[in-house]
């Protein structure tokens, strides 16, 4: 009988130990997604830019991986954000391919899938935008329920043991900037590494300094988020992802497939990892890869059709290379061309490798920066954000030091562009059409065409005019110095 009691006691102890282990097992991770607005690579100290102070990004980097070749799917807010939410290339999202375009409610987003898995999902400030989500069948922003009081109250009200996904969408460093904020913040305009596609004049150096001051403000807000995670005891079990929707709001950058329009910072951090030298990964990432990554972290088994590829194997050290190249695209940004009742975009596709950037402009008869004016509208070169740089380049377009740069940023382009990146990091010298690069141009064009066939791209073979006819949920007009949103 004693042996029976002893056996029962052992079994009870074993069950108690198993129960305790289960209670102590790590829960599914929280995910904090911090998305900047118009932030180009390499404007952060984690990328070696000494003219800007981003200590909170430095801190995150000590607990994670810094990606040096991350790209947005499209260099325009709405399609870029829609692509991240769905893990699909923008051209696979119907009307969602355009700025202010409709994201079909029937297309699964990771927000919907994470909510089904029991995650609390919310966002603050800029989520899916710009556009009117109520016209798309949504009752709330596709990025989640609005956390009107911010991240802190959201954390405070979170049910215990319930994981969260939170999208913190700052408006920095989007225009407009406060004139002179860069100097006030202690940024020396003369020490800025000015991109070679911008005229080197005091007015533009000051404008870029103001831009960088907003990046620094973004970094300070990251610090506030980290402080809240620490005080709430959530830091160790939260994966933090920092990225940008597209590049900087300057000519030859945002709304273009050049590197300063599509190449963006990406940092993934987890404080459960001990602090160390930042890990760096130079392989290519398209931000559509975030959705399957989020789903993997959350343990979501049921998957919709995706174009993105999970980053988890690379982050776990199971493979060294994620992608060897990325494909990029752009359709209509703002309403700034008279054709199609002001709806004509500027369709482009590109392939970016370690050595080359190859671009196809499918409607080279159109103005890539938009028409200089459109009757009965306020649009002025409406695909270039308004501000001091745009004003200076327009007003000095005939000056010897500005003329060529104005042409690069505003004027018409040929059907094909090819840039040799080791010699031309700012994408200034188009080699397409040169005999010495004929084979390279042809080979990259074939690779791009093969991808378009594989992805059922409506622009394949010269088609796609239906994209220019898609209605916007709201209207955006860009002027010399700002932007005007107007809803019919």
CATH architecture of the largest domain: 3-Layer(aba) Sandwich
Count of DSSP strands: 14
Structural class: alpha/beta
Write down the overall mean pLDDT: 93
CATH fold call of the largest domain: Alkaline Phosphatase, subunit A
What is the H/E order? HEHEHHEEHEHHEHEEHHEHEEHHEHHEE
User: Rg to the nearest angstrom?
Assistant: 24 Å
The first-level CATH class name of the largest domain: Alpha Beta
Question: Beta-strand level of the residues, as a percent range?
Answer: 15-25%
Largest sheet: 8 strands, mixed
Task: Record the strand order, biggest sheet.
Answer: 4-3-5-1-6-7-2-8
Overall, the morphology is globular
In DSSP terms (H or I, runs of 4 or more residues), the helix count works out at: 15
Supply the number of structural domains: 2
Question: Looking at this structure, what is the CATH superfamily of the largest domain?
Answer: Alkaline Phosphatase, subunit A
End-to-end separation in angstroms reads: 86 Å
């Amino acid at each position: 009988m004693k042996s029976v009691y002893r056996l029962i006691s052992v079994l009870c102890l074993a069950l108690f130990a198993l129960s305790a282990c289960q209670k102590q097992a790590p829960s599914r991770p929280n995910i904090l997604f911090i998305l900047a607005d118009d932030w180009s690579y390499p404007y952060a100290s984690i990328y070696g830019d000494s003219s800007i102070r981003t200590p909170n990004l430095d801190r995150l980097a000590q607990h994670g991986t810094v990606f040096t070749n991350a790209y947005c799917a499209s260099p325009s807010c709405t399609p870029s954000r829609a692509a991240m939410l769905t893990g699909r290339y923008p051209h696979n999202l119907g009307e969602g391919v355009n700025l202010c375009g409709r994201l079909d409610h029937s297309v699964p987003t990771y927000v919907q899938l994470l909510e089904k898995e029991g995650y609390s999902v919310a966002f603050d400030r800029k989520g899916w935008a710009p556009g009117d989500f109520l016209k798309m069948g949504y009752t709330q922003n596709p990025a989640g329920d609005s956390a009107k009081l911010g991240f802190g109250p959201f954390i405070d009200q979170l049910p215990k043991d319930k994981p969260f996904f939170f999208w913190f969408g700052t408006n920095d460093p989007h225009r407009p900037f406060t004139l002179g904020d860069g100097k006030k913040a202690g940024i020396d305009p003369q020490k800025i590494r000015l991109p070679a596609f911008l005229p080197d004049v005091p007015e533009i150096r000051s404008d870029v300094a103001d831009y960088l001051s907003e990046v620094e403000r973004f970094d300070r807000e990251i610090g506030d988020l980290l402080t809240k995670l620490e005080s709430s005891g959530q830091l160790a079990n939260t994966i933090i992802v920092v990225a940008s929707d597209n590049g900087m709001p300057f000519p030859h950058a945002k709304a273009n497939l050049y590197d300063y329009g599509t190449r963006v910072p990406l940092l993934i951090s987890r404080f459960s990892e001990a602090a160390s030298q930042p890990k760096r990964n130079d392989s290519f990432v398209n931000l559509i890869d975030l959705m399957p990554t989020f789903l993997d972290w959350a343990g979501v088994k049921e998957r919709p059709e995706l174009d993105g590829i999970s980053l988890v194997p690379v982050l776990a050290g199971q493979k060294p290379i994620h992608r060897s190249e990325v494909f990029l695209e752009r359709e209509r940004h703002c309403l700034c061309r008279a054709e199609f009742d002001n709806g004509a975009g500027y369709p482009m596709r590109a392939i970016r490798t370690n050595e080359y950037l190859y671009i196809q402009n499918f409607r080279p008869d159109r103005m890539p920066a938009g028409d200089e004016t459109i009757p009965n509208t306020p649009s002025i070169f409406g695909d270039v954000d308004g501000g001091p740089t745009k004003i200076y380049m327009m007003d000095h377009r005939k000056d010897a030091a500005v003329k060529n740069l104005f042409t690069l940023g505003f004027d018409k382009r040929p059907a094909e562009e090819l840039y040799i990146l080791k010699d031309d990091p700012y994408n200034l010298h188009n080699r397409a059409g040169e005999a010495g690069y004929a084979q390279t141009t042809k080979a990259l064009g074939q690779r791009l065409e093969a991808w378009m066939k594989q992805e059922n791209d409506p622009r394949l073979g010269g088609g796609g005019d239906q994209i220019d006819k898609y209605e916007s949920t709201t209207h955006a007009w860009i002027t010399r110095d700002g932007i005007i949103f107007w809803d019919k």
